[in-house]
Each structure stands twice: as structure tokens, then as C-alpha cells.
């Protein structure tokens, strides 16, 4: 290696090398001298022929325009663009003949460089090879009447070129630096505004056709196809190379670019523009992989303001196709297609995960209705996602009319209903287990981009659902539901419900469900058919409880949120009217057990009305009408009941003897028939509050007996020591009572027994204040039962000695004394 370096050093120091190096240096100096002499000669030539050159430049320009071309100053740029002759025009203005009307200057440039072919110039011809425009404003204007300041350029005259005719002057290269370009189309309400930092273009000509590869770096101030709606890609930088060609016969410009940078994203674009006087059609097709928000922010404000309410986490594959006419007012046709795979979709109402679908936006949903927001639509195809962990599939959904958006489609779901807990208000519903399937056609309005009043038709099938309805403290187990939504009604095909000891099977119908659910739930009538193998009334009363009042807490002003559907459901449940046709094999109320129960129930605002009810209990039957309504921690009830041949001991035992302390159900037997019209209160556990009852009660006991009843036994020992007062049978036991809370007015109580007959009237109290008058004939009535008629028994009833006694309250104990009540 060292030997090679020594050889090179030796060669460079040799005399032959020095000799040739000297000659080469003189050659280079000679070329520089010739170049300087040539440039100097050109400068001298320019100065000597300045007037003629400028005249020819003006002639070349003015012969092709209808307007004014003005240059403030010009000069020759020494050595610039050599071997071409570079002429610099300063403070250039180009105006059409109508400038005084519209005031839009077509061109205003600080400097324009025109590079002229030297040999053509020496032959007294102007051949411009390159134009450089620096620090300029190009303003292309079209008025509402169709006039444009580009009319300054005269149309070319078509003629056959002759052999002797010299070719037309062409410009082979155009460069722009710091040029503001404005295309202001008032006829079509379009505005294109660009700050061009750099544009470089070399043009190849083929007769009147040409093509170029153009580099452009510009800021997009406005790309508005409709100035009412705003600009596409506003305030974005655009940079890239374009392949552009022009066909004279079609008067059409074709543009193609790949990896064009707009903002931080890259795009593949193909486009064409017709520039004929009667043909201004254009089409732009854009393809890219881009984030949702980045793509949305490239669209016009009327679109992006809506799309920015949504988001996709990962980039999406997008194709945008824009077609229109530059001379036609309004929006062009816009079709955007996006392919989404395994993404996360955020909407104002929630989040979709594992989301895949094909999305299409069009502003020409129905071709006959034009290109506008009311005719715009977003179409989703093959949508699959999880919404709050609930898997959903939608074959196709359409959101049309972006001024008043309406969404329609078909949704399918198959999931464990415990996943609903993430969607519901936890203070209303909580699901533990169960499974749901749904196949529903949906339609809903979108108000301020939030889902509003969704409407569904189709079927929902729920199996083995266990849940808590917290406002009523209801725990339901193994519930099955089959629902069918139609335009006319909601059909409840099957609900199987289990709550504690209650087992309920329900089917029913709600007419006009879709219209009333949101707008007038108080007018909604739910028709239920309920069959209960077993039901506990006290447990069922919890359904009637008013929901606990929520404390009102002042809230800060926050962004509007969609109303949770469970809140709406709660409102409907509380306001609607439910008419229930009830059939029960077994009903229990405390110790009372009833069978073969039938009734019509109406639930209205937490009030339960019972109509045409019948049941069998205690060996007899009861017909009843009534109402139950919550009041604080208690229930207000009213009842009109007809009791027929009920075992009186069992009946009294079922109602805790109605709070009577003076005897118990073991003291009495017989069959009770009564007619009661009573109001009163029940406790929160469903027990009667006896001293709250008011109303009338008429009763009669057949085959009755009074066993070991202490008050009678006391009287018997005092007045009838030889009669069996421990086992008294009755041929007549009837009465008419007026209930007044704690006290009972005994208007007439007639007793015809095997020991004696007596009549009672006065006041009986469940607490203090008893004051009863007893009329007791002393004759032995044991054989009265053998008398054939009631008249005969009445005729002998008060023969003989008659005692008048008073049973009264003495410090809480019943005392007996002689006397009549009216003499007390």
C-alpha cells in the first residue's frame, strides 16, 4: 500500500503532469473568460435592445389577452440561467377589462423571471423556456353571472400549420415560490385558497397536448366546494409530486399522485378536471390508511362537526370519491368508504370494542334528492362489536338525513344478561344470571348526536334470569321472558317469574306500545294474564311500594348525556296502567290460605285495584272488590267483600282474630256469611292494623257454637247456674256493625242459643271505652230450635223475666252490671 502511495506522489510531482495540469488550468480560465465575455455581450445587447425586447415581450403577452399588462420595472440578471437570457420583471400586474367592476386582479407579482432562448432572441424571436413567479398573488374570479377574469386570455384560433409557419411559443418549465393562489367561484359558491411555498414543473408538449411531473408544497387555506359548509383540509400543509396531463381535444386535465402528504398523513389521489367553457365536470378519488379524527378533520365543517363526536382508536382504510361540476351551485357528490377491522369505536352513548364493519358515507342517499345534508347517510354493513361487553351484530344499519338524523337497521344479540349491569343504573336493576337473545329491527332519532327514543320491532327471548329490582326490593329468580315487538303492540308471549315463594306465569299485550312508551306512559295500558300456582300476598305487596325519594343534589353543569334506558323503564313502570286477569291455584295471606282464586287487577300509579275477585278458603268462598295503595310505610286498603259459608274459627285465625282480646277463634265455631264494606291500613309487612278499620259489616253464623267464652260463663254462673254455658249452640247468630277505628258500633247483634237468647247493642272497643247493652230473657231457650218458623221463635223470645245488663270498660277490664244503656 505504501509503495502505491509513493508511486502516485511521484507521478503528481513529475514534469509531464505539471505540464498538462497547467494547460488544463488555462483552458478552464479561457472558458470562464468566454462566459464572462458572452454574458457581458448579452448585457450590452440587452441594454442596446431593451426597448425592442420589452416591446416584443409585451406584444407576446398582449396578443393573447383582453386586458392590461403592467410592469413597473425590468432588468437583465447577469449569469442567471445561462446559457438562456434571464429577464426579471418587477411589480407585475395583470387585469382583465372588467376589473373596474369586480376589483379582482388576476396576477400581482413582486417578481417574474422569464428565461429566453438566446439564439431565438438573436433571431429577433421570443421563445420563453422557463417562467419563475416569486412573491405573487394569483386570483381567479368567477362572478354570479358566469363571467371570469380568466376571460382575459383570448381563445386560440384553430388553423392548419403551414411548413413555413414558425411553431408557437411554449413555456417548458414553470416554478412558483411564495405564491398565493385564489380561485373564487361565486357562481358555484366554491373557494380554493392556497399559499404555495414551492411549485416546480417541467412540461413536455405534443402539439396542443402536454404532460408534466409537478412538485408542490402548499398550505390549504380553503378547499371549499360549498362555501356554506366550509373547507376540506383547512389549514393543512400539502406536499408531494403530481403526474399531470392535458388533452386539448377533451379539454381535460388528469392528475395522479401517490404518497401525497396532507398534514401528517399520506394519500394516493387520482383526479380529473374538465376546463371547457361548457364542461366543468371534475372527479377526485382519495385513498389512505388514516386515523378517524385525522380523516374527519380533513372534511368540511358540516361533516367533521358530526363525525368528530365519534372516534376509532386504530387507523382505518378509507377511500373518498368526490364528483361534481365547478360551475354548479352546491355540494359535489361525496362517497366515503371505510374498512374497519378489530377496532374500538367511541360514540356519544358508549364504547364498542372488537369492532369490525364496512362504513359508507354518501350525501346522495336517494339520487333524485340531490347532494345535501338532508339526503346524506351513513351506512354500516356487517357490523360486529361488543357494546359494554354485549356482543352485537348488525347486517346493515343506515343513519340518514344528517340535519335530523334517523337510524334504522336490524340488530342481533346473544349474551349473558349479567353483562347488562354495565349499561343499567345500578340503583334500579342488577342482574345476577340468565341468558338473552334478541333479533330486533330498530329505529331511533339522533338528537345532538345522542340516541333518542329508540323503537324496536322483533323478538327478545330471556331464559333463567335472576335479578333484583331495587326500587321495590324485588328479587326474581329463574325468570323467563319472551317478547314480541310489533308496530301495533308489544306482545308478552311468556314470562315465568319466581320470587321467594311466589311463582307467576304471565302473558299479555300492550297496545300502541312504541308510541306511548316515551311520549305518554301514563296512557299506556298493560293487559296481563297471570297464572300463579302459588303466591304470597304479603311478599307481593312489595311491588306496590313507592320508590324511595332521591335526594336532590345540586349538580354542576356538565356535557349532556343520554338518558339511561333503565331510568325511562322505571318511569314507565310507575306511570302506566296494568290490567291483570289473575288466576291462582293457591294464595296465602299470613295464616289464610285461598284456592281457585280469580280476579281482575288494575295497577295505576302504584295503586292496585281488585275487581270481580273470587276465592275459596276455610271451607267457603269469598267474592270481593278492593284497592290497595302505599302510604308512607303502610298500605291503605278498601274492600267490599261477600263471605259465604266460611269456617268462622279458621277465618278469624287467619286474620289474627281482628285484634279482639275478649275471645279467641277456639271459643267459636260455625259457618260465617258476611257482607263487608271496609277501609283501613296494613303494616309494611302486610298485617291488618285492626284499630284503623272503618266501614260497615253485616254477618251471620250458621251452625254456630260458643265454647268456653269467659264473659258468658261469668254471666251464666251468676244468672243460670244450672245451664250449660260452656257449650252454647246457636240457631241464630247475626249482627250489623259500624267500624270506627278502635271502636265498633254494634247496631244489632242477635244471639239465639241453646242456653238463652240475648240482643246486644252499643260500643265495643279494641282498646278502652267498651259500653254494650245486653237484653237477656231468662227463660230457657233450649227447645226454641224445635219451633217450626222464625215468627214462632220471635213470639216466645222475650217471655218471662228479661234482664238488662251493661258490659262496660273498667280500667281495661270488662265489668257487668244491671241497667239499660240509655239510663247509664
Write a structural description:
- With 824 residues, the protein is an alpha+beta fold.
- Among the domains are: 330-487, no CATH class; 493-542 and 567-617, no CATH class; 635-823, no CATH class.
- The chain is 15% helix and 54% strand.
- It has twelve helices and 37 strands.
- It has a 37-stranded mixed β-sheet that branches.
- β5 (173-185) and β6 form a beta hairpin.
- Residues 550-563 have low confidence and may be disordered.
- Keywords: Membrane, Transmembrane, Transmembrane helix.
- One of its GO terms (biological process) is regulation of protein targeting to membrane.
- InterPro entries: AsmA-related.
- The chain crosses the membrane at residues 24-46.
Summarize the structure.
The chain has 824 residues and is of the alpha+beta class. A hairpin with a 2-residue loop joins strand 36 and strand 37 (813-818).
Amino acid at each position: 500500500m505504501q509503495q502505491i502511495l509513493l508511486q502516485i506522489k511521484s507521478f503528481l510531482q513529475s514534469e509531464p503532469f505539471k505540464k498538462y495540469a497547467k494547460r488544463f488550468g488555462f483552458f478552464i480560465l479561457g472558458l470562464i473568460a468566454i462566459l464572462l465575455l458572452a454574458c457581458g455581450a448579452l448585457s450590452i445587447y440587452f441594454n442596446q435592445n431593451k426597448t425592442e425586447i420589452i416591446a416584443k415581450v409585451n406584444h407576446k403577452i398582449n396578443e393573447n389577452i383582453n386586458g392590461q399588462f403592467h410592469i413597473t420595472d425590468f432588468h437583465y440578471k447577469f449569469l442567471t440561467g445561462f446559457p438562456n437570457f434571464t429577464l426579471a420583471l418587477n411589480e407585475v400586474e395583470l387585469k382583465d377589462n372588467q376589473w373596474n367592476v369586480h376589483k379582482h386582479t388576476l396576477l400581482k407579482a413582486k417578481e417574474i423571471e422569464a428565461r429566453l432562448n438566446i439564439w431565438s432572441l438573436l433571431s429577433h424571436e421570443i421563445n420563453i423556456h422557463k417562467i419563475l413567479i416569486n412573491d405573487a398573488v394569483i386570483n381567479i374570479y368567477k362572478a354570479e353571472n358566469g363571467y371570469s377574469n380568466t376571460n382575459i386570455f383570448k381563445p386560440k384560433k384553430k388553423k392548419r400549420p403551414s411548413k413555413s409557419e414558425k411553431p408557437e411559443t411554449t413555456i417548458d418549465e414553470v416554478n412558483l415560490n411564495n405564491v398565493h393562489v385564489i380561485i373564487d367561484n361565486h357562481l358555484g359558491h366554491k373557494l380554493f385558497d392556497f399559499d404555495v411555498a414551492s411549485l416546480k414543473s417541467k412540461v413536455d408538449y405534443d402539439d396542443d397536448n402536454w404532460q408534466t411531473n409537478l412538485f408542490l408544497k402548499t398550505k390549504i387555506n380553503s378547499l371549499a366546494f360549498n362555501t356554506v359548509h366550509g373547507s376540506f383540509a383547512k389549514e393543512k400543509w400539502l406536499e408531494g409530486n403530481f403526474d399531470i396531463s392535458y388533452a386539448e381535444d377533451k379539454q381535460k386535465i388528469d392528475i395522479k399522485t401517490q404518497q401525497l402528504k396532507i398534514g401528517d398523513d399520506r394519500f394516493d389521489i387520482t383526479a380529473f378536471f374538465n376546463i371547457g367553457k361548457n364542461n366543468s365536470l371534475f372527479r377526485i378519488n382519495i385513498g389512505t390508511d388514516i386515523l378517524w379524527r385525522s380523516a374527519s378533520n380533513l372534511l368540511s365543517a358540516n361533516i367533521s362537526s358530526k363525525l368528530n363526536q365519534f372516534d376509532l382508536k386504530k387507523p382505518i382504510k378509507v377511500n373518498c370519491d368526490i364528483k361534481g361540476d365547478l360551475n354548479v351551485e352546491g355540494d359535489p357528490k361525496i362517497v366515503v368508504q371505510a374498512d374497519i377491522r378489530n377496532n374500538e369505536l367511541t360514540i356519544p352513548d358508549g364504547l364498542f370494542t372488537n369492532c369490525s364493519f364496512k362504513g359508507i358515507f354518501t350525501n346522495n342517499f336517494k339520487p333524485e334528492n340531490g347532494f345535501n345534508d338532508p339526503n346524506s347517510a351513513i351506512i354500516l354493513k356487517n357490523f360486529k362489536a361488543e357494546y359494554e361487553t354485549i356482543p352485537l351484530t348488525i347486517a346493515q344499519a343506515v343513519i340518514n338525513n344528517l340535519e335530523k338524523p334517523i337510524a334504522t337497521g336490524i340488530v342481533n344479540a346473544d349474551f349473558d344478561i349479567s353483562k347488562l349491569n354495565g349499561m343499567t343504573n345500578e340503583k334500579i336493576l342488577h342482574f345476577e344470571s340468565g341468558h338473552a337473545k334478541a333479533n330486533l329491527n330498530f329505529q331511533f332519532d339522533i338528537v345532538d348526536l345522542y340516541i333518542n327514543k329508540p323503537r324496536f320491532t322483533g323478538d327478545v327471548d330471556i331464559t333463567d334470569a335472576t335479578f333484583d329490582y331495587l326500587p321495590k326490593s324485588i328479587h326474581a329468580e329463574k325468570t323467563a321472558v319472551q317478547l314480541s315487538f310489533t308496530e301495533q303492540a308489544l306482545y308478552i308471549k311468556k314470562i315465568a317469574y319466581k320470587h321467594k315463594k311466589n311463582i307467576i306465569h304471565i302473558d299479555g299485550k300492550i297496545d300502541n306500545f312504541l308510541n306511548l312508551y316515551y311520549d305518554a306512559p301514563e296512557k299506556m295500558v298493560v293487559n296481563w294474564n297471570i297464572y300463579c300456582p302459588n303466591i304470597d300476598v304479603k311478599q307481593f305487596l312489595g311491588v306496590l311500594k313507592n320508590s324511595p325519594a332521591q335526594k336532590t343534589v345540586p349538580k354542576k353543569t356538565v356535557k349532556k348525556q343520554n338518558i339511561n334506558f333503565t331510568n325511562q323503564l322505571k318511569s314507565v313502570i310507575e306511570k302506566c296502567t296494568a290490567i291483570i286477569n289473575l288466576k291462582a291455584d293457591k294464595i296465602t295471606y299470613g295464616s289464610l290460605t285461598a284456592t281457585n282464586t280469580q280476579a281482575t287487577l288494575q295497577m295505576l300509579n302504584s295503586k292496585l285495584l281488585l275487581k270481580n275477585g273470587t276465592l275459596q278458603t276455610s271451607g267457603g268462598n269469598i267474592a270481593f272488590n278492593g284497592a290497595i295503595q302505599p302510604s308512607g310505610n303502610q298500605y291503605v286498603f278498601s274492600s267490599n267483600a261477600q263471605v259465604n259459608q266460611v269456617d268462622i274459627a279458621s277465618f278469624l285465625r287467619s286474620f289474627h282474630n281482628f285484634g279482639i282480646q275478649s275471645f279467641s277463634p277456639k271459643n267459636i265455631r260455625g259457618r260465617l256469611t258476611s257482607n263487608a264494606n271496609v277501609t283501613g291500613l296494613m303494616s309494611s309487612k302486610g298485617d291488618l292494623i285492626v284499630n284503623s278499620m272503618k266501614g260497615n259489616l253485616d254477618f251471620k253464623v250458621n251452625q254456630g257454637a260458643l265454647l268456653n267464652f269467659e264473659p258468658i260463663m261469668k254471666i251464666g254462673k251468676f244468672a243460670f247456674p244450672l245451664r250449660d254455658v260452656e257449650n252454647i249452640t246457636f240457631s241464630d247468630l247475626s249482627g250489623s256493625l259500624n267500624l270506627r277505628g278502635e271502636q265498633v258500633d254494634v247496631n244489632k247483634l242477635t244471639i239465639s242459643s241453646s242456653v238463652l237468647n240475648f240482643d246486644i247493642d252499643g260500643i265495643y272497643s279494641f282498646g278502652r271505652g267498651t259500653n254494650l247493652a245486653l237484653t237477656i230473657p231468662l227463660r230457657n231457650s233450649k227447645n226454641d230450635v224445635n219451633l217450626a218458623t222464625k215468627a214462632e221463635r220471635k213470639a216466645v223470645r222475650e217471655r218471662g223475666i228479661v234482664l238488662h245488663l251493661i258490659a262496660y270498660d273498667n280500667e281495661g277490664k270488662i265489668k257487668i252490671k244491671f241497667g239499660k244503656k240509655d239510663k247509664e
